[in-house]
Amino acid sequence: RYHTTFRPAPTPEIQARLRQNPRDKEENIQKRVENYYRNVKELEDFYEDAFYVNADQDPHAVFEFIESCIIKPLPYKK
């Protein structure tokens, strides 16, 4: 699999043969994003004890954060 930005095809010949997945077209992505925003509030209400995890960091730091939230959750206002 190739990605136009992160992992482009190695040669122009291969790039010419590539096809885009129909699910990845802009209008389909837009529908999925709209569906997400339409339902996100209900999900937040249902999972009221959930917490936000910034997973864009070292895996050990993510694990430590999750563990600390489970063992001794931080107090918060509702």
From TrEMBL:
The keyword Transferase applies. The keyword Kinase applies. The lineage of its organism: Eukaryota, Metazoa, Chordata, Craniata, Vertebrata. GO terms for molecular function: kinase activity. It comes from the Eukaryota. Keywords: Kinase, Transferase. InterPro entries: P-loop_NTPase. This is Adenylate kinase 8. SUPFAM superfamilies: P-loop containing nucleoside triphosphate hydrolases. Residues 1-28 are annotated as: Disordered.
